[in-house]
């Protein structure tokens, strides 16, 4: 089916952040919400089969029963980008669902967490004894990570349900969030309420002439400009110093996936801000390693062959644009990236795995100076060992 043009919603002729989805886009959105996604359990726990629209319906209903007002539900991230433009070059992995709700304090955050865990019981297969399964057990079995942020500007929490193929269902509960995007191409949010209501109330299936009006928003700003960036694979952002981690890892990911800077000169300047913010947020080499390893694990499922290219690109950007580190800190980070790249090659059986390399050189026979030893040991940059670690599913952010 040919793609129809979006209808922009504007006021007094000004550019708008909003647009009404075309029929082709509505179809892609409906397919995503009605697709059955497996949530894989750890150990011997069974796989849960759930449709996104069903989990949204259950969670929303129980939140309202607990007097937590849900203003609206939105689809966010790469799935929203995929709805708006199918050939993004990125595909979509995680399914990001945002519940815009009133979260006044710790009690509301705890209630939301309890609701989500309790909802998982509804998706357990028949025959499973649910009486002895505690919320803690459900968290350990099905939740990949939990995040809670509560400060003056940001009040939100995230519960990510595990999928072995990288398509996690991420339920995000947002009262306020100052920065909701990294780059223009991932700034889209699609309001789901009209489509969800249609499925509950309509007895007739959707068609090109009979479907609800669904509105998308670019939280970056101009919707048309952001969609143009997505269609032409252009990298554009503003104020990367406001992004946790500076957007550095996502920026290098976009480069590897064939995106290019909308303005080369402007992006070279922004790269320095990205690197500065990354090292402000992750000053310790251990933190940097955990962050990079987590990014590789979460964003390259089924694309392991692209990990090396990604790390080479990251090494180049850090080497070129890092101005805020002392020399030894900069070399340490570059060494870490090189070690991760070496490990990736070893995992792909391109080269043998090795932790350290020492080179020995024998001097020429005519070297008779008594100051020379029999062998000259070349001082090489050590390869930092990168052991596997087990990290907690909780990622508290205060």
Automatic annotation (TrEMBL):
Stretches that traverse the bilayer: none
Q: What class of enzyme is it?
A: transferase
Alphabetical list of SMART domains matching this protein: DUF1693
The keyword Nuclease is assigned to this record: no
A GO BP entry: mRNA stabilization
Q: Which reaction does it catalyse?
A: RNA(n) + ATP = RNA(n)-3'-adenine ribonucleotide + diphosphate
Please state the span of the N-terminal signal peptide per the UniProt entry: none
What's one GO MF term for it? poly(A) RNA polymerase activity
Annotated family: Belongs to the TENT family.
Name of this chain's protein: polynucleotide adenylyltransferase
Organism placement in taxonomy: Eukaryota, Metazoa, Chordata, Craniata, Vertebrata
């Amino acid at each position: 089916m040919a793609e129809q043009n979006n209808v922009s919603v504007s006021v007094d002729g000004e550019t708008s952040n909003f647009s009404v989805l075309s029929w082709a886009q509505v179809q892609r959105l409906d397919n995503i919400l009605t697709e059955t996604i497996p949530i894989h359990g750890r150990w011997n726990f069974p796989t849960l089969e759930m449709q996104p629209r069903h989990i949204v319906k259950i969670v929303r209903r129980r939140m309202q029963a607990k007097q937590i007002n849900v203003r609206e539900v939105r689809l966010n991230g790469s799935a929203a980008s995929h709805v708006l433009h199918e050939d993004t070059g990125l595909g979509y992995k995680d399914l990001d669902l945002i519940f815009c709700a009133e979260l006044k304090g710790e009690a509301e955050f705890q209630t939301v967490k309890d609701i989500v865990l309790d909802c998982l019981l509804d998706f357990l297969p028949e025959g499973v004894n649910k009486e002895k399964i505690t919320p803690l057990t459900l968290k350990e079995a099905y939740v990949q990570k939990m995040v809670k942020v509560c400060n003056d500007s940001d009040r939100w929490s995230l519960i990510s349900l595990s999928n072995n193929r990288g398509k996690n269902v991420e339920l995000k509960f947002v009262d306020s969030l100052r920065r909701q995007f990294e780059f223009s191409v991932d700034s889209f949010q699609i309001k789901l309420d009209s489509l969800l209501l249609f499925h509950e109330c309509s007895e007739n299936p959707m068609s090109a002439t009979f479907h609800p009006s669904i509105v998308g928003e670019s939280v970056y700003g101009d919707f048309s400009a952001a969609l143009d960036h997505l269609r032409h694979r252009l990298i554009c952002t503003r104020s990367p110093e406001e992004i946790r981690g500076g957007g550095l890892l996502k920026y290098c990911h976009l480069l590897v996936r064939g995106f290019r800077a909308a303005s080369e000169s402007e992006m070279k300047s922004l790269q320095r801000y990205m690197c500065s913010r990354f090292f402000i947020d992750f000053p310790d080499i251990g933190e940097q390693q955990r962050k990079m390893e987590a990014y590789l694990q979460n964003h390259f499922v089924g694309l392991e062959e692209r990990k090396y290219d990604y790390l080479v690109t990251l090494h180049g950007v850090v080497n070129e644009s890092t101005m805020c580190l002392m020399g030894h800190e900069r070399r340490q980070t570059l060494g870490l990236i090189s070690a991760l790249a070496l490990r990736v090659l070893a995992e792909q059986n391109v080269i043998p795995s090795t932790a350290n390399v020492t080179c020995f050189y024998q001097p020429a026979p005519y070297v008779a100076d008594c100051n020379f030893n029999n062998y000259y040991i070349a001082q090489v940059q050590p390869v930092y060992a990168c052991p596997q670690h087990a990290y907690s599913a909780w990622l508290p952010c205060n």
